[in-house]
Amino acid sequence: MSNRLAQATSPYLLQHADNPVDWWPWGPEAFEEARRRDVPVLLSVGYSACHWCHVMAHESFEDDDTAAYMNEHFVSVKVDREERPDVDAVYMEAVQAATGQGGWPMSVFMNPDGEPFYFGTYFPPEPRHGMASFPQVLRGVSAAWTDRRGEVAEVAGRIVRDLAGRSLARSGDGAPREEELAQALLGLTREYDAQHGGFGGAPKFPPSMVLEFLLRHHARTGSEGALQMAADTCEAMARGGIYDQLGGGFARYAVDREWTVPHFEKMLYDNALLCRVYAHLWRATGSGLARRVAVETADFMVRELRTAEGGFASALDADSDDGGGKQVEGAFYVWTPEQLRAVLGESDAEFAARYFGVTEEGTFEEGASVLQLPRDGGVVDAARVESVRERLLAARAERARPGRDDKIVAAWNGLAVAALAETGAFFDRPDLVERATEAADLLVRAHLDDRARLARTSKDGRTGANAGVLEDYGDVAEGFLVLAGVTGEGAWLEFAGLLLDIVLDRFVAEDGALYDTADDAERLIRRPQDPTDNATPSGWTAAAGALLSYAAHTGSERHRSAAEEALGVVKALGPRAPRFIGWGLAVAEALLDGPREIAVVGPADGSGTAALHRTALLATVPGAVVAAGAAGSGEFPLLTDRPLVGGRAAAYVCRRFVCAAPTTEVDVLKGELAVFE
Question: What's the mean pLDDT in 532-559?
Fold first, then answer.
């Protein structure tokens, strides 16, 4: 049996390369083979940090008998959802429509034309809790294919027709106005968990994009309620088990509504988005907690996820060796009182147990606890806390580490570039700005071809074969635009423009709607198109935000008009489903504010220039863009015809290139950037 996954750039596919299952990668060859053999295709979709993907792999895909049946009766295709979000999105839509739920691993049975007829997620190796076993499912699907082919064809045709008939709610009359954003805020207030922070019940995910909207809404309107929801949610997450109290960084989600027990996988995108949220919360409030979490999360990304090529790896697994050769979820992170005593001694262990909420009963499994920061209101010995934290972190480093998915995903690295650039600028950490620049360099070097087309992934410096999707173009352009504002290097503005021209040429429909794949991408049973956020901003709203920022930088009406048309979907969905279109709402806040354009002219090595530049970057006005450099340098259109004032560095605050009188004074600039108007 040939090993077709051995040369994959996906660590997830490589994890399955030695299975007894005769896996095929996604591609026309697999479907041709199914057609030749007259068997159905079994599509299995997952990702490397997925706990239940590992469970099903160990239980079923590593089992010789199960694999033999799969090899005889199916062509089995393995897909990394992070490499092929388009494939994942199309079939997940079908799974959710048919079953009312979704998740990974995703198992889809389809005919050789790619038309699905049976679905599921995780299947156990034997019947369990009313759920059929995976062998039972395999036998049932094979029997239906052999004995009831007409019924299978009817089901597949109906599903494809249903998917093709779905349409998006569009407002048809432009971007959202004040009224729709106020309605969105009201909707969020109704779903807000006032006791524990966040929205909804368990499981509870970090609402990163909604938090950005709340901070921007407060900045534009002065709404104390919006700020309070954002601040309280951020504090609850930072104190909870979802945040790594020793090493920094956030887990994927909490299984409970109190943020106590996480699903322990750590994703680059969550940490990039949350790093930026906490930096923005500090910018708005001066919160010491927000500053600490932003910096610690940035340091976590650099320490744990940075690759030799300068980019950022996708994820850390939830599972690791428990010391006895067994892969256990959370084993790297949790502590028992006995383990604390072994590292710290009796007195400090008792202190650490109180401080981090470690109990004899445990807050997780088998008497272990996830470290938290309970609100006890007592006076804390900061030096003792730091000593305890350092010793526990050193002891934890001796444990078996979770596996790391080393592939570079363009979109998520774009998010990391934006977060690290701003965090470095806000907190005087030039090393973080340098790491952001190195990641941006890698995106240009390994992901961007000579036609300005993006590759979705790379690994070990080797470019992956999969084309970038809309979120890649939107998030990478966003990262480049933020980096341009922080560094004053106009090349990043130019690169962003190249990417956004591809968006306008290849992803935009005649009515202003956006597709997730380019018009020349591989044809699937449906061209994916989803404006709602998932764990990251949707490609649709990410592109709208980058288009708006680029228009603010350049004065391009083409890019601004495209952004406004794209935001029509926010007008339709924002009042009804604000939790699921948070980034679109945040972009709409920027549009309502202008956004402001801040041009800082002066010598790069001048203290006056630096002070004005920093003041501009710290402005909380929604979506402001910043251009800094020598007058008339040509790197930024905003700097054209913006002279020094009396030979001194000056700042110009503009909207749509119409500027107020320039100022040379930091305090005056702060006044011009007042948050409420």
Answer: 97
**How does pLDDT run across 115-149, given as a tens digit for each residue?**
999 988 899 999 988 789 999 999 999 999 999 99
Which whole number is the average pLDDT over 270-285?
98
Q: In which element (H, E) is residue 106 found?
A: strand 106-110
The answer to whether residues 521 and 508 touch, using CB atoms and an 8 Å cutoff, is no
Q: Which residues contact 674 (CB under 8 A, 6 or more apart)?
A: none
In angstroms, rounded to a whole number, what is the distance separating the alpha carbons of residues 245 and 241? 8
Burial class of residue 527, CB neighbours in 10 A (0-12, 13-18, 19+): middle
Per the structure, the complete domain to which residue 147 belongs is given by 11-164
Its pTM stands at 0.94
The CB-based long-range contact list for 155-160 (8 Å cut-off, 24+ gap) reads 155/117, 155/118, 156/110, 156/111, 156/115, 156/116, 156/117, 157/115, 159/94, 159/97, 159/98, 159/115, 159/116, 159/117, 160/115, 160/525, 160/526
Choosing from 528, 559, 593, the residue where a domain stops is 593
CATH classification of the domain holding 550 = 1.50.10.10
Q: Which two tokens stand for residue 289?
A: 């907690």
547 in the same domain as 474: yes
pLDDT in tens, 579-591: 999 999 999 999 9
- Please check whether residues 188 and 304 belong to one and the same domain: yes
Q: Which helix (H) or strand (E) holds 557?
A: helix 557-566
The radius of gyration of the chain from alpha carbons, rounded to an integer in Å, stands at 26
CA–CA gap between residue 596 and residue 669 (Å, rounded): 12
Q: Environment class of residue 367 by beta-carbon count within 10 Å: exposed (0-12), middle (13-18) or buried (19+)?
A: middle
Residue 171 resides in a domain = no
Q: What pLDDT does 171 receive?
A: 46
DSSP classification of residue 310: S
Residues 191 and 136 placed together within one structural domain of the fold = no
Q: What is the pLDDT of residue 616?
A: 98
Rounded CA-CA distance 127/436 in Å is: 49
CA 572/CA 276 separation, integer angstroms: 27
What pLDDT shows up at residue 343?
A: 97
Mean pLDDT to the nearest integer, 60-71: 95
Question: Distance from CA of residue 201 to its chain's centroid?
Answer: 21
Calculated CA dihedral for residues 217, 221, 222, 223, nearest 10 degrees: -60
Specify the residue for token string 């940075």.
Answer: 306
Max Cα distance, the chain (Å): 87
Q: For position 605, what pLDDT does the model report?
A: 76
**Shared-domain flag, residues 239 and 263:** yes
User: pLDDT grade, residue 100 (50/70/90)?
Assistant: confident
Distance of CA 140 to the CA centre of its chain: 37
Pairing of strands 457-459, 462-463: antiparallel
Q: What is the CATH number of the domain that holds 145?
A: 3.40.30.10
**pLDDT at residue 7 is higher than 80:** yes
Statement to judge: residues 291 and 365 lie in one domain: no
Is 538 found in the same domain as 475? yes
Spatial distance between the Cα atoms of 73 and 651, rounded to a whole number of angstroms: 69
Task: Note the pLDDT of residue 589.
Answer: 98
Strand 408-409 relative to strand 650-655: parallel, antiparallel, unpaired? unpaired
Q: Residues 7, 39: contact at Cβ < 8 Å?
A: no
The structural domain count of the chain equals: 4
* 517 lies in the same domain as 603: no
The domain boundary residue, chosen from 103, 135, 164:
164
